[in-house]
Specification:
By secondary structure, the protein is an alpha/beta fold. It is 41% helix and 14% strand. It is globular and about 60 Å long.
């Protein structure tokens, strides 16, 4: 039996990265592998017989006491606790290989050194741009930002890129600077998995070894999604309400196009979005957070799903989920989104941040016949079934594991 150590900060379904992490584990367990998790302790964690080895909880940016901050700050940069706890787990479990996901700031990249010391082949999936950009997103107050390129990591401190905080930004700089100096990712990771071709190209531009970067698209189990091809009247956005998602641009475009919009999700941008909707006269329904069943019902009732991102989006699961539910996508031409939107076949694209171009796409889709929208949705569903199935993902990942030296 092949044993895989699965490493991630969180061990519950918190966001897209955790969904990929947990679904990956479940997929390989269904193939007969033993998957052993290593994560941070958290009240919402899934049950695990290995949780005694998990590290103490740390929430980046929380209001800890001064003593709490002093204790936690070094852990963000290089957690000796995480390395020690992982070593204890490795004394009990001798994995054939390890697959890490998001480890930054909580477990910290120290876990990669613990694996390297034992000679365990390690694969790291990159869900964001953290290995290049200390602030994860390559996004600043004035838009997409690549100022740290070429080793200018101090820009994250100068511009206070982490929540506008000098202290948090300095911590992010210290962590990035240390692991760049140690060459952690080059020395400890056999393969870097990227869900989008865009990320592979961008990280190579920033100096990551191109031969270590492997494109493996995300997957969804389409059989678990019941599609509805008949279109509703409203356009739908679902996801976090944060600035980089471009929802304010979408609200303005909906007002200009005169179409109805439903916004599903929660986040700090909600008050701003309500003000924009009021000022523009947009017909917007703010639904708030919905659990999976209700969310799927809401998506099935959409005319099309809109992804108006204004940062280097990787490979959003929301797009594949929309396709699995039989809905076309209108997506911004930025990051990895255009890799999945086939113009006139599964949806349409527009220039990221352009109210005018997005409004034009919304008006076009509003004018299409229901039969034409249904045909787009059916093609979207086929795309997921054919190119993003669990089976295709498993084959691609097994190839990565073999390249990394993991015996399977």
């Amino acid at each position: 039996m092949t044993t895989l150590l699965a490493v991630n900060n969180y061990y519950y379904r918190r966001g897209g990265a955790e969904a990929v992490f947990l679904d990956h584990n479940r997929l390989f367990e269904s193939e007969g592998w033993r998957v052993v998790p290593f994560a941070m302790r958290h009240p919402r964690n899934l049950a695990s017989p290995w949780s005694q080895y998990f590290v103490d909880e740390i929430e980046y940016g929380e209001r800890y006491s001064l003593g709490g901050k002093l204790v936690r700050a070094p852990k963000v940069i290089y957690s000796l606790e995480a390395r020690r706890r992982l070593a204890e787990l490795l004394d009990r479990v001798r994995p054939d290989g390890a697959h890490a996901h998001n480890v930054y700031h909580h477990l910290s990249p120290s876990v990669l050194w613990a694996l390297h010391a034992r000679g365990i082949p390690t694969v790291l999936t990159l869900h964001d741009l953290k290995v290049a950009c200390p602030a994860y997103t390559m996004l600043a107050a004035d838009g997409v930002c690549e100022r740290c390129r070429g080793g200018r990591l101090h820009e994250v401190v100068r511009r206070r890129c982490i929540k506008g905080s000098l202290a948090l930004s300095t911590l992010a700089w210290a962590e990035a600077a240390l692991h760049r100096r140690l060459r952690t990712y080059e020395r400890c990771v056999a393969r870097l998995v990227v869900p989008s071709r865009f990320y592979a190209a961008k990280l190579a531009e920033w100096g990551m070894p191109r031969d270590r970067l492997v494109h493996v698209p995300n997957f969804v189990a389409a059989t678990e999604y019941v599609p509805e091809y008949r279109p509703g009247a409203r356009f739908v956005y679902f996801g976090r309400l944060v600035r980089e998602k471009g929802v304010a641009t979408l609200v303005r475009a909906a007002a200009r196009a005169g179409v109805a919009l439903r916004v599903i999700g929660a986040g700090p941008e909600l008050p701003t979005l309500r003000r924009v909707a009021h000022a523009t006269g947009a017909e917007v329904e703010f639904v708030g957070h919905l659990e999976a069943g209700a969310l799927h019902d809401a998506v099935r009732g959409a005319r099309a799903i809109v992804m108006p991102s204004e940062w280097y989006e990787n490979a959003p699961l929301a797009l594949l989920e929309a396709y699995a539910l039989g809905k076309p996508v209108i997506g911004a031409r930025i990051g990895g989104i255009p890799e999945h939107v086939r113009e006139g076949e599964t949806g349409a694209t527009f220039a990221s941040g352009s109210v005018e171009e997005l409004a034009a796409r919304l008006a076009e889709f509003a004018a299409l016949t229901d039969a034409a929208i249904a045909a787009l949705g059916a093609a979207a569903r086929r795309h997921v079934v054919e190119d993003h199935s669990p089976g295709r993902y498993r084959e691609r990942m097994l190839s990565v594991y073999r390249e990394a030296g993991l015996a399977a």
